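input
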Amino acid sequence: MQFETITYSKDFSSNTYLIFKDNAVIIIDPGHDSDALYWRLKKADLKVAAILLTHTHYDHFNGIGFFKKDDVPLYLHHLDEIGLSDPTYNASILDEDLKRAGRVVEIDYPHMMTVQDQDELELLGIKIKVLHTPFHTKGSVCYYLEDAKVLYTGDTLFKNSIGRFDLAASEPRKASTSLEILKRLPDEVIIYPGHGAKSTIGDEKQFNRYFKVR
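output
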């Protein structure tokens, strides 16, 4: 199993993550609206086993449309399903560049698989646990690879910060409860956030003022 991070500065420096195993790949949060990733994987003859979304703000799912024709299953929390087609929920309505171009982000994706808290996915023989952590959006989730000690946090937890909770999709009152879920994970777990650099649960407990153990 190998891991890769791709950062797209055009889309708010959002991170896309790839998990490789054998001749296949799992994509987490393909946020860039170009077909470059699709063709890169196609040319390498890598099968895309699944796409996982941590939440449905458009800068995290803008690239899913290129994978529809290959029947790639898309996993997301059922409360965030609305974000694929609702520009207010997915925040694309706030993007000035999109406004100038007279467009918003609305994607019809036919191969959806909705998840709930504590679901355990097994993809490419990799066990992935779903942790529902609402506040940035109602259906925000983190994906926990316990065996690898890896956690994909989306916009729930960043290095030295957390996601904002003042958008249409947010549930600010659930922030504390959601962060407590992550604080219970082992300190050595590496976090890969939706924006910015990676960190660990232990470092965030020590240095992140929103996440410190009191």
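quick obs: Residues 2-207 form a domain with the Metallo-beta-lactamase; Chain A fold (CATH 3.60.15.10).
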